Amino acid sequence: MRRIEASPDRNRASPSPTEMQLPSLCRRSAFWSAAFVFWAVLLWFLSDFPGSALHGPGIPGFDKILHFGYFFGGAGLLSAALFLRTRDQPDWRALIAVVVGILAVIGMVDEWHQSWVPERSGNDPADWLADLAGAFAGALVFRRFHRFLT
Fold first, then answer.
1. Is residue 90 included in any domain, yes or no?
2. Structurally, how many domains does the chain consist of?
3. Is residue 65 included in any domain, yes or no?
4. d(Cα 122, Cα 12) in Å, to the nearest integer?
5. I need a labelling partner for 80 at 20 to 30 A (CA). Which of 46, 92, 136, 143 fits?
6. Considering the domain boundaries, does residue 1 fall inside one?
7. How many angstroms separate the CA atoms of 141 and 49, rounded?
8. pLDDT 10s digits, 51-60
């Protein structure tokens, strides 16, 4: 009778977060840059919906949560793209400042764009501050998890 032995991989514990590796495509700046461009184009199209087409849960300030969350994600994408260009010697203060600066401009353009869309208010400083807060938080969180890209 042939003895069946367990594969060494089956006995191994699941990898720790520092051992986990993303596919090689995800370790390229171009991948994250393309994802960021897609994020920005999607933002433009989402902002182009008239106010009557938007249905939220009716919670006051819920749109600020959406702004924060969307820009949090954009900051993660842009942070990854920029980090992979300078992964040997990243200057985190500069990287975070560049990410927040770029997303601040995108947030201003988004608010201006919304001011031309029917039934949208646009030019809302509170929306822009939520964008900035999301961008800053997203860049900081990325700094914590950047090691997954290397």
1. yes
2. 1
3. yes
4. 54
5. 46
6. no
7. 30
8. 666 677 778 8
Strands (E), 11-71: none
Parent domain of 93 = 29-47+58-149
Long-range contacts of 146-149 (CB under 8 A, 24+ apart): 146/79, 146/80, 146/83, 146/90, 147/17, 147/18, 148/17, 148/20, 148/21, 148/22, 149/22, 149/26, 149/27, 149/80, 149/83, 149/84, 149/87
Burial class (CB in 10 A: 0-12, 13-18, 19+), 69: middle
How many angstroms separate the CA atoms of 111 and 102, rounded?
14
For residue range 7-32, what is the model confidence (pLDDT) as tens digits?
455 555 555 555 667 788 888 999 99
Greatest alpha-carbon span in the chain: 78
Query: Any idea which residue has 């920005």 for tokens?
Result: 40
Q: Which residue type is seen at 31?
A: F
Residue 106 lies in a domain: yes
Q: In the chain, where do the E strands start and end?
A: none
**Alpha-carbon distance values, 126 to 18, 23, 112, 129 (Å):** 38, 38, 13, 5
Residue 137 above 80 pLDDT? Answer: yes
Rounded to two decimals, what is the model's pTM?
0.82
